[in-house]
Amino acid sequence: xxxxxxxxxxxxxxxxxxxxxxxxxxxxxxxxxxxxxxxxxxxxxxxxxxxxxxxxxxxxxxxxxxxxxxxxxxxxxxxxxxxxxxxxxxxxxxxxxxxxxxxxxxxxxxxxxxxxxxxxxxxxxxxxxxxxxxxxxxxxxxxxxxxxxxxxxxxxxxxxxxxxxxxxxxxxxxxxxxxxxxxxxxxxxxxxxxxxxxxxxxxxxxxxxxxxxxxxxxxxxxxxxxxxxxxx
Length: 232
Fold this sequence. Notes:
This protein is mainly α. The protein has a single domain, classed as Rhomboid-like fold (Up-down Bundle), CATH 1.20.1540.10. The protein is built from eight helices and no strands.
């Protein structure tokens, strides 16, 4: 009984940690937005402006800035769900994925996006979603597939928002975030070990019984063939 209980406690602890870390990051976003509203701060200078030397700082700061309450509300729940399941399902590679998506999506926007100030964590959320999606396709274990199904059920629409839809929305951040997520999946999809497949005692017994039956059938078949040959 100790092993299952110990495994359950470890899994439960990792789930709590994943939610805690996600809430910490979300708290930072809301603290920045609250300061922006309460003190009338103009943080547009922290946005990502393509092909602008000063705008390079936006690669690191743009995901922290949001234009409206609706904008940050939409990203809040996506970050909470996607980053939590990322840490839970990929505890060894989550920080690599998170970092690469953050940096690579920003670099892509800086090089190729429209001339505007791009802000928001949408590129990050798209990157996490596409990592979970592509990694599950390659791994095909129960844990990664279950996580992908949760992510796809809630945010499957992200497969469409990487294309231009509304003028005021940075689809470029979505697209390059998704691209960074795919690259991360190709690099680190096997960094975390797959969960062990639990086998029960009766499964082994059935397998042994099937093997014994097949061997007996082969012996009987070969005997019948020899007998038939002798008759002829």
